[in-house]
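Students often ask why inverse folding is considered easier than folding. One informal answer: many sequences map to the same fold, so there is more than one right answer. In these notes we will look at a single instance of the problem. The structure comes first.
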């Protein structure tokens, strides 16, 4: 099933430890947090707005824009970046009065969730991780472009003449989608318009490191004890399937599902297949349930 995204719901703003989060909530049931990727113009709705309504049939789906994205706070981040985001998401859970949740994550958001699960294990029931890059070393090093493919793409997108609709289409087609002919123009437009946000433009123009200090999470992954599904695209442009196989062995309860004819955003390219795979994983009873 190929779906075009609908306009994002208005959502609401919440204050968490002095920073503002924007989030969209749909459905009712077990709390399920969706953490989006880090590409230019990404938001929770741009990454999960097609598939989240399927989960919302019987789940409380919470889609926050990560800090420095969407309508959330754009202030610089200091200190180890994944630890900072993990602590901030825990603060969001506290404000929402959520003791424990399932996490469904893409790319940047998945690395945050892995760090969170390692440092706050009692707050995570399960993890679904797609296209994330928490480890830079080990048997698969060096990673493509030294692990900088996403950052290099961001520099190209914001560089030169600056963002354009065509540059956004090319970025998504090259790095995030397997079949560019199926890329909905609504997705390109949504991402492009968000990438023009003054706060995001200002962050992209800074010469320092406003996103925080980079972290390798090899040690933290060994502490992730919750059931963890790595759901990967066979044709992921950043990391081929041998990488998530390594990750699935590093966490304590890892498993891997490879979906064909998909790249980095399989939840958008193949939403029904993605939903059925992840829903089956979520429906498995956990010892704490």
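Output (designed amino acids):
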């Amino acid at each position: 099933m190929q779906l075009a995204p609908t306009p994002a719901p208005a959502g609401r703003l919440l204050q968490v430890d002095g920073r503002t989060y924007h989030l969209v909530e749909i459905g009712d049931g077990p709390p399920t947090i969706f953490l989006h990727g880090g590409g230019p113009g990404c938001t929770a709705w741009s990454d999960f707005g097609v598939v989240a309504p399927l989960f919302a049939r019987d789940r409380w789906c919470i889609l926050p824009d990560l800090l420095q994205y969407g309508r959330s706070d754009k202030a610089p981040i200091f200190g180890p970046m994944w630890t900072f985001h993990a602590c901030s998401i825990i603060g969001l859970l506290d404000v929402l009065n959520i003791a424990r949740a399932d996490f469904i994550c893409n790319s940047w958001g998945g690395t945050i969730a892995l760090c969170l699960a390692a440092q706050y294990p009692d707050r995570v029931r399960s993890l679904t991780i797609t296209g994330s890059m928490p480890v830079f070393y080990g048997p698969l090093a060096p990673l493509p472009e030294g692990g900088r493919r996403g950052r290099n793409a961001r520099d190209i997108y914001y560089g030169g003449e600056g963002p354009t609709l065509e540059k956004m289409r090319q970025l998504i087609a090259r790095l995030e989608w397997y079949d560019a002919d199926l890329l909905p123009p609504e997705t390109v437009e949504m991402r492009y318009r968000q990438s023009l946000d003054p706060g995001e433009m200002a962050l992209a123009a800074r010469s320092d490191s406003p996103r925080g200090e980079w972290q390798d999470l090899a040690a933290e992954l060994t502490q992730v004890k919750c059931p963890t599904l790595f759901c990967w695209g066979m044709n992921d442009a950043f990391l081929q399937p041998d990488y998530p196989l390594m990750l699935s062995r590093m966490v304590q309860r890892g498993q891997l599902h490879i979906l064909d004819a998909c790249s980095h955003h399989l939840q958008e390219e193949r939403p029904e297949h993605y939903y059925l795979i992840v829903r089956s994983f979520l429906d498995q009873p956990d010892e704490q349930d």
